[in-house]
């Protein structure tokens, strides 16, 4: 009897934990940290193996596919950024359901070759889809592709010409957008209208149904690329946490009030970017700067400036340029970098466990890794996905290759839905699954 009771309990846990949520509705997935509990996703594939379909895309982009009820939403742009599109694809068949041109009149401005003009991922509440393109603004579509509203913030400037990449974020009846940019300190793009206003260097929340601004919090940190996320802090409170060029900070998502901050860089520090999103085990929060500067672990903060009171450890991340966000598994942080290296770090101590070559010596990690079936998936920019067994030793299980090996072809992060893996290149959306 005990055996059958155990089997029944196991079956119940399997059903509720693995298949309860087959949607991936925002950047970095259901828990904001790249974790999937779907056990049906295959761990091996190539152009001929376990590809259910391959759908062409109308333009370039590094936005990750966002999925709700068998619909995938992506953004794309023309080569020169003059046209920006939002696309919906049926995840069962790969058929394009709709394509909308969001903008084709705004001056494109400059962007980095690692970034492009369509890097921010969409987000959806199942009724509306939100897409952000920087200067063209934030666009809200119905799930069927009807434009409901759009919001222009002004011209996003970047002194170095790196573009924008922060994804919109939904909380209750709000859609929240990180508008970090160089503001008046950055040059207006060629073709900008006379008297064009720069976008506010702020975190902005709008009514998700109308686009009306509900609150705006000045940040004045300069250009930044990170996406806000909900995270548990002291006493179990859920804060809106946002990394940035100089610091990580927590906000009240209902009002935008800054609740706490932890500084990382001074005004003259070159190790400023802050695009990787934090990860947490519920006890510590781990934050990267993005450039070869400090990385930190914080004890869960409560209120005020916690720079001196809550830093559990801080280490220099020398010789590493981090575009992607890390994953956390069994107390170990796994961080790939733009040179194709993978670093494993003990979350509690900051001690480096290993720092090894992940790719082939030529490719790089620009998209963020995910965890599937207890394995680490690292998509490299040339289409190789390296499947790694987590642990104290570096162990590659599989190397799965899509595309033709072109550099910078795969800059998006993989996503998971209903037993399938979705991988986006500059020209195609792949659906990986058991045939």
Characterise this structure.
The protein is mainly β and 435 residues long. It has a single domain (24-432), classed as 7 Propeller (Methylamine Dehydrogenase, Chain H), CATH 2.130.10.10. The protein has one helix spanning 2-18, and strands at residues 51-56, 66-68, 71-77, 84-90, 96-103, 123-124, 128-132, 138-142, 147-151, 169-171, 174-178, 202-207, 213-218, 229-232, 238-243, 247-251, 258-263, 279-280, 284-288, 294-299, 304-305, 311-316, 327-329, 332-336, 341-346, 352-357, 370-372, 375-379, 384-389, 395-401, 415-417, 420-424, 428-432. The strands form eight sheets. The protein has a five-stranded mixed sheet with strand order 14-15-16-17-21, with no helix packed on it. A four-stranded antiparallel sheet has the order 1-33-32-31, with no helix packed on it. The protein has a four-stranded antiparallel sheet with strand order 2-3-4-5, with no helix packed on it. Strand 31 and strand 32 form a beta hairpin. It is globular, with a radius of gyration of 21 Å. It starts with a helix and ends with a strand. Residues 1-20 have low confidence and may be disordered.
Helices and strands in order, then pairings?
Layout lengths: L1 H17 L32 E6 L9 E3 L2 E7 L6 E7 L5 E8 L19 E2 L3 E5 L5 E5 L4 E5 L17 E3 L2 E5 L23 E6 L5 E6 L10 E4 L5 E6 L3 E5 L6 E6 L15 E2 L3 E5 L5 E6 L4 E2 L5 E6 L10 E3 L2 E5 L4 E6 L5 E6 L12 E3 L2 E5 L4 E6 L5 E7 L13 E3 L2 E5 L3 E5 L3
Keywords:
435 residues, mainly beta, Methylamine Dehydrogenase, Chain H, 4-stranded antiparallel beta sheet, 1 helix, 33 strands, globular, disordered N terminus
